[in-house]
Amino acid sequence: MTAGNANTDPQEIFDDKVAREIRIEPKDWMPDKYRQTLIRQISQHAHSEIVGMLPEGNWITRAPTLRRKATLIAKVQDEAGHGLYLYSAAETLNISRDEMLAQLHSGKAKYSSIFNYPTLTWADIGAIGWLVDGAAIMNQVPLCRASYGPYARAMVRICKEESFHQRQGFEILLTLSRGSSPQRHMCQDAINRWWWPSVMMFGPSDDQSPHSAQSMAWKIKRFSNDELRQKFVDVCAEQVKLLGMTLPDKDLQWNATTEHYDFGPINWQEFWDVVNGNGPCNRERLEARVKAHEEGQWVRDAAIAFAAKQNDSIRKKNTADVAA
Ligand code: BYC
Predict the structure, then answer these.
(1) Pocket test for ligand 1, best of 41, 103, 170 (most atoms within 8 A of CB)
(2) Contact 147, 219 (CB under 8 A)
(3) Which of 15, 73, 215, 253 is the most buried (most CB within 10 A)?
(4) What's one Pfam family the UniProt record gives for this protein (predicted)?
């Protein structure tokens, strides 16, 4: 596009903005498939944050010390906040929050596979922080540069908070790894159970990922699923040494040629079983979500009534001001 020769073709204006790294904003024209892709990804991301509160919430009453309890409550509360920023970002694409929640509750919309695994011991809270939040950071930092403005801006704060979450998880594991023999065993056992599901979080391999190519062309995604997965493996393979623990992969080995860690085959059958609703906790998670939504109806009603009352008193004050 050249100055003085204003382009009026909406598709060309959109393509030009994406090419020049100018953010797409809610009132800009965008291709319908771009809008739908963003609604799909952002709403699924929001659902993951909200469902992700459940496995951790399970440990708030059983956290071993007051400090651990306070930290875990703060982390779970952060995740509620992440869900809210993301639902708000998705709403700018012309979908209501009620519609998104209905899609989650009916099983139509996905949420991250990782939250369909159980949290069996306190060490699982450490493993979730280190591995699950670690994988989330790897995936989400590039999303701060996503082409859609509201999503990219929401991700900045989310990533800052995820970084705190990851450290609290690692610190829990570090404490256990320096503890008694049962504590060390619990630490290794949690790593063993959470490792492969965390590796799967990045989604199907690139040749099996139907959305990646288009999402990368639109600059929603900046790295492919496999690229991010490899970065994650490389980081964790080093960090696990600080814990004096191991990752449960006999094929994990530094490759001096590629300058990356090689790793063993991923059980994609397990991944798709979990994604398709047949993981260890899918049913339990969805039931808990629907129950919380139904039981929270009075809170939503009260909030709406309070907002209406406030609007009414502002309106009355404005009328009185005009009359005075
Ligand atoms: N689980 O073509 P693909 C968090 C689906 S929150 C379930 O590669 P795309 C945290 C995918 O949706 C973590 N489904 O898709 C929260 C698609 O199905 P549909 C969540 C998965 O979108 C609380 C199909 O497989 N993070 O970390 O290009 C506490 C084909 O996949 C998964 C985000 O949501 C999965 N793991 O790439 C602690 C980040 N993977 O929609 C931590 C934002 C793939 O066609 N999302 N599928 O029915 C993304 O970056 C991308 O959407 C993905 C998938 C990389 C996840």
Answers:
(1) 41
(2) yes
(3) 215
(4) PaaA_PaaC
